[in-house]
Amino acid sequence: xxxxxxxxxxxxxxxxxxxxxxxxxxxxxxxxxxxxxxxxxxxxxxxxxxxxxxxxxxxxxxxxxxxxxxxxxxxxxxxxxxxxxxxxxxxxxxxxxxxxxxxxxxxxxxxxxxxxxxxxxxxxxxxxxxxxxxxxxxxxxxxxxxxxxxxxxxxxxxxxxxxxxxxxxxxxxxxxxxxxxxxxxxxxxxxxxxxxxxxxxxxxxxxxxxxxxxxxxxxxxxxxxxxxxxxxxxxxxxxxxxxxxxxxxxxxxxxxxxxxxxxxxxxxxxxxxxxxxxxxxxxxxxxxxxxxxxxxxxxxxxxxxxxxxxxxxxxxxxxxxxxxxxxxxxxxxxxxxxxxxxxxxxxxxxxxxxxxxxxxxxxxxxxxxxxxxxxxxxxxxxxxxxxxxxxxxxxxxxxxxxxxxxxxxxxxxxxxxxxxxxxxxxxxxxxxxxxxxxxxxxxxxxxxxxxxxxxxxxxxxxxxxxxxxxxx
Length: 472
Description:
The chain contains 13 helices and 18 strands. Helices cover 31% and strands 21% of the residues. Strands 1, 2, 3, 4, 14, 15 and 16 form a seven-stranded mixed sheet that branches. The chain is α/β, with parallel strands linked by helices. The longest helix is centred in the first third of the chain and has 22 residues, at 31-52.
């Protein structure tokens, strides 16, 4: 046979990256075992597709994320014919029955007139919900406003007059007592003036919040003995409980006091969830993200006399994952998807990517919601030339995965996240991502790229009846 003019055609690299959630919830109901088995089964089919497309050299890598993110086994891309799957291990749930101290910091100013009753009833529902999730919980309460105390504490709460704000502190106690405590909240109880976190004069509220948590750590409560100690006398006061703060306010200040507030909360290892007001570079969202918590937009519930939906999601988030301090001092709640995207983004520039490369394939697999700054990680990925051109596929495992987030990752309205509710569906979707997507990305059509969008014809698989039913 005559040799080809100019020699053998050079192959073009095609990078294929699995991005796998290994957080604690993946250890439940055999999710991680199913994921390992599905990818292992898909590899022979991937090799067959690669053999049918000899001008593409498929290179594989696996990235894993939970508390932080890292490359699995090696950060080097490995040729498909040499690639061997090494099983991933999910993080152990740090405590199957987490011992939590949860404090609500509630705005009692006049702007809450349409919400205060809903907050009270929903906080009671929250207490019941978090208990059903299996957590060992002690609950506290702090109300705040401008104008001074307009009620009588009568020993139920302690009033503190600060530089501008007045706050009332109810000690950490049992969920049953918390229900009674939250009923004593009323509009304007500590003044009708606005509650503008994180203006500088709100900074001095947070040392009192920290001391409230520390009263539990030392075993000091209103009764002289913490509720949790009464439930479990063997429990050591020196073993600090998980600390959760939930801020509820429909007003927002500037960010001039933000760094001091966040520093105070991080020093005391307090994860903060905020039901607040969204704003570009807003303090509410920053307090949540910088302490490892989550933000919910309270304005979407304006006029709706029930926050139980929002607080139910908060309860789920708190119960499922425990916060961990990473080596760099940052706090992680266990599904650091934004960190994973940032790590992949570093590989989507030239170098290490080649200008001859085919569009890379990124497959994101998760059973939960990001607990770090997902948008920041996605923005970083999309700033990279090959991140923007990549074929991005997402597989949701179970009902708790956040489809809106996965849709943002995909970035194409015509391609939807795939939801796997049992091992059978997960195997089918992973095989599709490994073969149909790989074939499309390595086809000649994929080489035409413009405006950051690739011409890759993809038709996501339709759901099929499953013999195993819903497991997740």
